[in-house]
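Note to self: user wants both folds in one dump. Writing first protein now.
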Amino acid sequence: MAQALARIGVPEDAPFVPDEFQLEAVRLGQNGDVIVSAPTGSGKTWIAEQAIARELALGGRCWYASPLKALSNAKFLEFGRLFGPDQVGLLTGDHKVNIDAPLTIGTTEILRNQLYDTQSRGSDLETDLVVLDEAHYLGDRDRGVVWEEVLIYLPPRVRLLLLSATVANSDELAAWLGRSRGREVAVVTGGERPVPLVGLCLWPTGHIGELVVKSGRRRGGWPGRRAFHRLQIPNSKIMAALRELDLLPAIFFLKSRADCDAALGSVGGTVRESPERFQARQQLLDDYLEKYPFLADHPHLSRIRRQAVAAHHAGHLPHYKMLVEELMSQGLLEAIFATSTVSAGVNFPARTVVIRQSDRFDGQGFSDLTANEFTQMTGRAGRRGRDQIGFALAVPGPHLDLGLLASLLRSPPDPVKSGLAINFTMVLNLLNAFRPTAIRRLLSASLAAWQTATGGSGQSPSDQALTRATEDFYGSFQRHLDFLRNEGLVDQKNRLTTEGEWATELRLDHPLVFYAGIKAGAWPLSPPALAAAVAGLTSDKESNKPPPRRKPPVKLTEPLASLALAVGPMMERLEEAGFVTPTFNLRPAWAMWSWATKGDFDEAVEILGLGAGDMAMLALRAADHLRQLTSLKNHEGLSRAAREASFHILKEPVSSPL
């Protein structure tokens, strides 16, 4: 413990010297596909920069795909400074900038959609190198299917550079890709964290001690949750202990948004900082408020100014979160209080991360942290170039299992497991380009089929085992195909009908429900009502607050009722066939109507009953779906209404910052 604390300090300035794994990845990537599996902050982006620079120098084209719009926006600005703004374009749905540039930055969904288009035209993707950032998202339960589709559809002539956090089965991923792409895929591992990590524990006495694995057992000797079920160590006490040992700045991972916001009022204490840092924070805040004046009324600004602390979670506006990220990255905050979701895709490391619970809400319930989730959180501890050592502080309480955290400190990473699931968007777009026999071959090239065939052994499967494994996924494809045929979108020869062809343009959630509404002419052509209807169908969060006492306007409820009546039979048939269907949620629709017609964001947030960030994300999600309607051919009235509806809802403070 004393030795670890003695290492606290800023490392000496030294010229940048790439690590051996970075040089090896660059060398191998010149002629083939490479998977780089390395800890957070170890310099994977430098590898991508070198690969892109070489490709651009040779006159080639590159695609850089990331999982998040915010991360894509950040890379667009970063690469623009590095390669020149004329060399870099951006495609995220929200933004289209310099789209003919030789380097395209965008989300993985946009890249997948471009592959759909090239497949349907029988053409080739106009790129020579694809960099997939955060490639471990391949195992994401909800979005991993997009990564897997990209890797299945990408032409073998296009070189691949996959940048991943450390995973246990990178060799298996390389073997799978090598077989499906017809050439060997190299694996480069990054080894140790660039900034060493030490586990600490704050005891109720205020004493901080080292957290270590005892007896080599998972929970050996450590008390679990029950031992601390009544213990609540206040944040002010934690901050005081961190300040005394020079362990700030810190990221507190808390279990809920409400806890994050409430924590700001429980910090206490005095900020120890230089006048220069205080002035720099005030200046940055003033600059942001001048650029985004709608942030001036944010209730947390005074806490940022006076105490150098902030909350960061999905309930806040995108612009506010960007402000907090910039403050933290410049070292102008003492602490941020965040939900664990902030650990993915956001770059603001601290000296210490504080962990108050050993479980995480996965959208349905709470489950124990996995090794990968814990590594993602603690990956923010220790700032490369600013710290010689980083710390993970466990704070005992009713939601913390110390034994689990102690074991996770030394646990190997989890393997990536396929999350592939067949859906109607995939089936429609595959039928637009291939016959079912070719689709069967594509599915056999999936990681899902590979892992099913191996039974998790990590060994290369035989052709027979792969064929058997593919049948499960092809059976699901066939079930979707049969439904489409019964609906008249596919003919008896398994070819798309005219209606099926335009339905392929609906690359969104629940395309058949949208299709049914379009076919019946039931989507409202009033732009505010259209935006509201889309929001009501695509909202995935519900408020537990009572709705406003006033009633929604008839101009909203009547077109919603007509749309629900028109798509109801399709939804019933989908449910009878065992497919998931959406539900019409009135409050999100009403909130979007209010925003589109009145432009009063606070009123829209009140109607929604959630946070300002939720309202912004609902509008951005609705705009993504409206964008699909905008591109529809032979539906000019609906396309025009969708275009105007997007204009009504994509205004500050919703518009995505760049």
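First done. Writing the second protein, which came from a different request thread.
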Amino acid sequence: MNKTKRMLKVITSIVCIAMIAALLMPLTSFAADNANSGTDIILVVDDTGSMKFSDPQKLSAEAIRKFVDCLPSNGNIRLGIATYAIEIMPTPISLGNVDDAVANFASNRDAIKKFANKNITQAGKGTDAAKGIKWAVDELMKDGSGRKKAIILVGDGDNSFEVDYKIVRDSKDSDAMRDAAIQNAKDKGIVVYTIAINNNAKSDTFKKYFEHIANFTNGKPYEVKSIEQIDPTMKEIFTLITGQKIVELDDVPLSPGVPATQSFDVPADVFEMILKIDHNQPLADVTLKTEGTEYTKDNLGNNYQAETAYTTIRIRNPKEGSWTVTYTSDIAQTISPDFVFYKDAAFGIELTMDPGDITQQIDHKYYATIKTDGNQITDENELKHFVVKLNITQLDDNGNPVATEVVDMPVSNGRHSVAYATEGYGKYELKAVIDGSQTESNILAIDVLKNGSILETWQILLIVLGVLLLIIIIVAVIIMMGESPDYVLGSVRIKITSRANEDLMIFPENTFNCENAFPEKKSSLSDLIMEYTKWYRMINSGAVAEMTLSQHINSYLTEVADKIAVGGNKKKQTIIKIPAGYEMTVDELEITKPRVIKFKSAEKEISIAFKNQGSSYRIDLVFTR
């Protein structure tokens, strides 16, 4: 039987053969002039009194200004902003009409910066983040096109429904509003990024509130406690939303009045480059040069924007090749410059897999390659900033999704990868997704075939040969076993030793011919024992007196003995079949699972010992021919 099972497994493995099909979709990109591939971004800021203590440096305003200053002038982007307390604060900036907002992006961006400078006063009363998130989701849902949609929620996350010593809102109503809003966001593909700013937090309640919103909408939560943490946080959110890579240059130490120069390369097909310089005090001068062209503070005009903590310089259609930038400062300070190069197709992710047969439920290797400007990112330190997940969607016969599984793709050898095996048969679609962004890879379609699937001719022939081989093996096994109906053959000598209720009983050893003694063929050990006791009493009635031996046997042995089959076959072998669930030994061999034990010769003494209901028994049998 064990040989048969092993052969069945081999045949099943042979049968599970199929072919792989893959669909390659174009990489998601950040395009400059396609209306449906544009991006809508809403900024929502907590502007309540508690923020004076949570955010005394007004990091929220700094974060907003830095973010919008890194966006391209003609990147098909719409911006909106609102502040909230117990309600949405007056005069939020809506997204507006797509065409108008995109055409007037520069002025819209400046309006957002002015809003951050002027309208974030940290004077609002009460706090209800649900109002802020609902306003942002409703605003984004007004446009039903295929534009990317994202929300950046900034605050301390600490709701308070008390205004002038009165509770003006029920916390359950607020939570219900929040949950409905983020459910709408998730359904519409709106991703929410949260920045929790709270230097004086006594608990992590505020952080958990924001984390729930971000994680539920497939966004990402952040916690910021210093001005130094703002920059990497906004860079990461910027990359996740826009798909643009920020190129960091080395920090430059400056001495008063002494120019310092850096070199950098501008790639081809850049429609706008942005140089952002973090500093302690605005610089006296910044000059950019390339062959035949020089950009200064005077000729850049509005494309040179100096803030207290940073300066932004924009150059449209810069020349490809080598550039230099010269910085001059009136004070001693160290500056940190960054570049963003905007191209028509800046950022994407591609999913591939190892070649070979993946139609069986075995581990297969999948790879996610992240590209910027068509070039693969291979630096592992840079790749670790991207959390990539493999989404596996199982489809029904009509191609409709029925189940989805998500697995992490860690960084290994210059790309993200994972070994994965499907949990069942059927059709699957796989894609890689950068967590916290709307950037998805191409789709790989695979078909894990089950028995009965349509196969190629050579596969059908192989299956037929396998089935024929299986039939031959089964027939051979049956012939080898040569089993006839189980019953005791020939003579048997039996001795029963039983220990029950502390009384030891030994029934004398006797030999009798089963075929003559039994009126009909017997197969179980219980039958054999019962017939033995009847026969024993007939020839030893005086010795047994009134004690009913069969009753004793029935009381203590029948339950397990009924399940032990004792038989033989044409080869004059003795066969013992042992059931599961009993502690027993056969010739000192412990039996814990169902077993069929064959003794090559019928002339074999067999000792069976077992426990039942706290009592133990031993039966010695000797079969002869």
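Dump finished. Worth passing along: The two ends are 27 Å apart (CA to CA).
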